[in-house]
Every structure is written in C-alpha cells, then in structure tokens.
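Q: What would this chain look like folded?
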Amino acid sequence: MKKTLFFAVSLLALSGAASANSLIFNYQTTGSGTESLYDPSFDGGSITAQSLMHGDYKVLQDKLTTYTKSILAPDVNVGEGLKWTLTLSFTVAEDIEVDSISLDLFTFNIEGKPHSGAREGSYSFNLKLGDELLASCSNDVSYVGATGNTAGNQKADIDALGKGSSGAREEANLSNSVSLTAGQTYTIELDLRNKEGNNSGYYVGLGAIELNAVPEPATASLALMGLAALMMRRRRV
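A: My prediction, written as structure tokens:
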C-alpha cells in the first residue's frame, strides 16, 4: 500500500510540471468552417479576430478531402515561392507567462491528400501587443512523408505522422518569455512558406498552435521533489 501510494504521489508531482497550462488554439476540434477558414477552439480566453492572407489577397480553405477538412488548409502552394500568413488576435482569461510554442503542421498535395514524400519548409512567428513586438521565433522545418493510407479519407493526426499523415510537430523557444495580462488583446502572426532554395511543390496546413506556459515555481519544485524521492526509493530497492 505504501509503495503504491508513494509511486502515485511521485507521478502526480511529475505530471504537475508537464501539465502546466498552455494556451491551445486547436483547428481540429470543430470540423466546420466559415466561408474562408476554420475558427479554432480556444479555452484560455476568447478569439477577437482572425485573417488568412496570401500577400494582399484573402486565402480560401481547401475542402477537397476529409484530411484537409480536418485542419486549417490554405489553398496556397508554398512550393511555388509563395507563403500564407495567419493573423490571430485573442484575449486571455487569466494572467499567464509563456516562453515557447508548438505547431502541429500537416502537408498535402494539390488533390488534398497527404504527401508521400518529405518536404522542407520554414516559418516565422510573432507575438504582438498592438504594434509592439513582444517575442518572436523562426525556423526551418523538415516535413515527413506519409507511408500508409494516402487517400485523404482520414483526418490529419499528429500521432500518425509518417504513416497516414504527413507533416511535422514543431517546437521552439520564443526570443524571450512574455507575461500575458487578462483583458489585453494580443496578436499572433504566423507565416508558413517553402525553405529557401527548395523548389518542391506542396501545400501546408495547421492543426494547432500552442503557447506554452512557464511552469510556476511551486509546481516545478514539487516535481523535482517527487523525482528526487523516486530516485532515492529506487536506490533502496
């Protein structure tokens, strides 16, 4: 009983750090879109505005297959030297400090089906308050191809990358941490484009954006204590 209780407490302490609240903008939960693009679900506050642009032109959502209907899938071939830009404004319900991002990205071809081949791309991410740039990051991305069902009759799934889905799970640190204040309106600007020098054609869509919270000191300390206790227990055993 004591051993079972000890491991349960240790696991709870460790999971506390891992489950620090993140702000998740999820484009894969609604399954229904507006005329131009899907509205994401967002439990950490509210969406105040959203636009999807290619240069000066609004971009339409690609609705060819079940695969592309399950994500934000702009009808823009980034392999032709083009890019698309998502601008998303939001407010948060509670104060939160964030320091990194995660992006669920999915590639597809002109028929709306997962790519069977690998692709190379890049992105830039800005977090702003009005016209003030608060933090940013930019990286190249390697997208894996799908080797399983590429008919496009299944939903895009980040856990099926390299199988029935093609794309990448991108994680990156922001240039600095940012404290978001409840009631303020912040804006995300995300550009997705081809990698410079790469001429392979493809389309890229978005499953989710996550703004990852900085763990609270108390939560992080609890997790470390649980880990230390677990290591001591193993030594005794």
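The first strand starts at residue 22 and ends at 26.
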